[in-house]
Amino acid sequence: MRRKLKLYTPFVSAGMQEVAAYRINWIFYMLGNVMTCVVTYFIWKAVYASGDGGTMGGFDLPQMVVYIVLMFLSNTMIASESGWVVGEEVRDGSIAMRLLKPISYNATFLFQEIGNKLLTEFVIALPMIIAVEIGRGVYYGAPQFDPLLFLLFLFSAAAAYLMNFFFSICFGFTAFITKNLWGVSVVKECIVNFLSGVVVPLSLLPKGMETVFLLLPFASLNYTPVMIYMGKYRGTTLLWFLCLQLFWTAAFWVLSKLLWRAVSKRLSVQGG
Prior knowledge:
Blueprint: H1 2-21, H2 23-49, H3 61-78, H4 82-92, H5 95-99, H6 105-140, H7 147-173, H8 175-178, H9 182-195, H10 207-215, H11 223-229, H12 235-263
């Protein structure tokens, strides 16, 4: 096991170097996400101002603000570009070079993204968590930080990332047949963002629709970690959603293995 991990250590380093090398691109990407977060805040502020000032879907306005910030943070933590990279390598033919290496095709993407995450989360996640807790403490007049919920949030976010990684890899493998993923990627992102609670909290949906969406894998990507951090899930409910996350993570891992065996036999590239 140690020998195998050593093989992928350079990919972790490469992921960190990629962020450092293209830091201007990374900064503008993050600024775009921050602007989206700010616009979302003002939209929800207007929605609450037009109502009776009570709660919506179990959230009052301060809780909704925390939800928006945590959803932005969660979305950043679990983001995976593996599917898009697979599609681009198929399109330009560079996938041939990766396939020649005597290592796992999927693992090269995973460890490179881990390196990317280590640097990104240190710069983004830690300051945002501190800001959220300071804001909650000031509003409620007492510290709201729960170490146990925070650890469970990290565990849930890690499971969500792995699930999103394997889901993205599965999506990327369709490029072996379609040759280009750009148009489909746009549609996929819109659907996933809605089903994972990025657009609106799932608790605002009709009860039957909410129940169905919570059972789908996409709720485990963003909604579950955020609800755990906010203390909305506790006891058996929390355990149920964590187990559901692990189930979908394992399911997409198995699916990625099966798809790889199927599509790698019919690979043809347009470039390279």
